[in-house]
Amino acid sequence: MTREELLEVIEAVLEKASVPDVVATLTEERVAAVRFGQNRITQNMDTFERKLRITLGDGERKTVYSTHRIDVDAIPEILDKAMEMLKTASPDPEYMSPVNAGQVYPMIESWDRVTAEANPQGRTEAAGKAIVTARMHGMEAAGLVGMTYSNTAMGTSTGNLAHHRSTEAFMRLTIDRGKPSSFRVISAEAWKDLAVDEAISEVAAEVEADENQRELEPGEYRLIFEPQAVSNFIPYIAWHMNARPADEGLTVFSGRQDKSVTGDNFTMSSEVNGFLKGIPFNEEGLASKDVVWIDCGRLVNQPCTRYWASETGREPLFIPETLAIGGGSGSTEDLIRSTPGKALLFRRFWYIRFVDQKELSLTGMTRDGVFLVENGKIVHPLKDFRWNWKPLDLFSKIEKLGTRERKYHYSVPPMVIGPTVL
Fold this sequence. Notes:
Number of strands: 19
Mean pLDDT: 97
Shape: globular
Number of helices: 10
Largest sheet: 7 strands, mixed
Strand content: 35-45%
Number of domains: 2
Helix content: 10-25%
């Protein structure tokens, strides 16, 4: 549907609704991907969904009604069904009317027509290249390569109307030869910008380097995190930054507003229209904005719902689907060469679980490559092992930062963490 067609449906809902508080969202989503494993393509999928989501409120009660029936003539019938649900809803003690009129939505251009309309050929060829490369080297390839697009219109009874569309091309790739393995995730707004050949070649070479793994000897090491490893920790910080649980004393951020939570060379922000593109509005119609969450180690802002903002005097804020960690210059290889003494290089982490949610203490496993580094050179690969760390403590010991890379919705640099006992 075009922007005009989407908004026509939204305006019809707002016009015909019989209650004062209405938010309507109409979204089209396509996900098309090729899955492969054990050196063969196992699935080709292409799904499309169009959904209308209507929130009705009468000042005391609220209900949400969703339907796949998208027809302007059917709007009265759809609203009748939503009203029946509203009549039986319980009063909401945290009821909020729609966002005020005059929301200023950022203009974000993150749409590529070729990517949105792409047929399976490019995805199949990319999977085939990974499979052929793996077979040539006596390895196995597995992963997912595909694209998504989202096309959304939103309106509120207070007079806000907005539209946004975006595309993303991606590839997740694992190649292994038994225990030796490596991994890469790459993504871009446009399929033409996806560096498939480079990623496949790099991962295959990294598997070769992961042969003959040895046990880690206990001791003190610097830690070198590739961007993927850094990105594995970011969601756990983001989830725990929310203002309400922090104000209620439930998270590691409780009582730490405007105080240091990491070292002074760690900054986390949301760049709505930066290196990564975010979204211009949330499901309530609240406009997004650039926000610095942690500034040079100091917690300066926290995501906050509109209700909690009204209760506390905070500003209502949300993470617009992207987060950026401030970086420096140089690749992971540059950081390795400049790291003195003994260090460990990590490609990524998985099977991450909480040890203590309030302290933000995590446990997990290394995966797809751990290496001993001595005086700026990789010495040999190590066997995977379990770790127990607190991300905020790790990010309080950053010694060096490299150039940021895109890892899905995160923009993250490689980094060197100061001496740590393992």
